[in-house]
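Continuing the batch. This is chain 6 of the set; chains 1 through 5 are on the previous pages. Same settings as before, nothing changed between runs. Recording input and output for traceability.
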Amino acid sequence: MFADSAKIFIKSGKGGDGHVSFRRELYVPNGGPDGGDGGRGGDIIFVVDKGLNTLTDFRHVRKYVATNGQEGGKRRCHGKDGQDLVIKVPEGTIIKDFETGKIIADMSGENKREVILKGGCGGNGNMHYATATMQVPKYAQPGQAGQELWVLLELKVIADVGLVGFPNVGKSTLLSRVSNARPKIANYHFTTLNPHLGVVDLGDGGGFVMADIPGLIEGASEGIGLGHAFLKHIERTKVLIHMVDAASIEGRDPVGDIRAINEELGKHNPALLAKPQVIAANKMDAVAMDGEDPLSRIREAFEKDGIRVFAISAVSGQGVKALLGHVQGLLQDMDDAPTVFEREFDLDALSVSESLPYQVEKLEEGVYCVEGPRIEKMLGYTNLDSEKGFEFFQNFLKKNGILEDLERAGIEEGDTVKIYGLEFDYYK
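Output for chain 6:
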């Protein structure tokens, strides 16, 4: 089963605690502190594996945790660093924050290796804290906590050309004729259940990668049929080939089909409609000679908008060379670098430094204000409109002692808390 999405939990390692110890040797009665530093926690690292083409493995293992750093030891011994955890994904995988849907990294193009979560720093041993006035420090720094996150992995195939059209119009037949791909072909709807990629070789160094995108029907952008699962694979393509059954063997209207597909593309992502389009009027060898000329009708409807229409037969190969040559010409005028989506999620926001200040102030009777850099940074990456985001916000207030500070300031149930333009009623 082709898998192009998966939700997993990732967590980097905690830094090892610094050690508290004192030098104890013969003839050294007043040895100073010699507690070593803790080791660094392991990172969570994603790398591209060219041998993978689905996310199936992530449906069986959903939790990925790097090892913690080791505690420091006596005699200034440094704790062992935690081992990094390397997670292999197919090229084209997008890593998103599950809560916000924002892109953390796109494993495409030059981006073959990405450190997603950094391990916690090891704590300093007590040997760092000896001073002229404190020669026997009995404390050390704890290791920094690791970072954790639920992420959504989405595989968006990397292809130059996307082949779109309603079921059973001949997309798989065309792909198998012009490339090395061998998709399943049969005379019934939804034969193709997975996106298929094929390399089209035009000779003299020319060629491109074509993807057969299955499952596009009316309502695909709302999840009807299979389109909702596969529309995302069109987003990286540079040119779209609309394939229609010009012979209307199943009674379909080719002009109406193209317009319906474009409507679904626009609903999913309006930017898709800006891509260059070409129409492949397939099954021309089956068009009745004494009936209406479907090719003229299709050309009249779309060529005025600059969309070329090619009469082809995917079975016999008629007109296919001209179609591919035109597509190659469109690609030559475009940037040959793959489409790579930009980062939207700030990973630094995962670790709101406890050293950042904040203050709690009573503005008037029953109204309190909480503000400061620590609060601003937390609000910058928390979606309070979602249930999980608001739950995180509540835990943040509790964990950082802000609720205790409010209670010390005299807050009571039903009072109002103001936080940078937001207002909440306080209840225990």
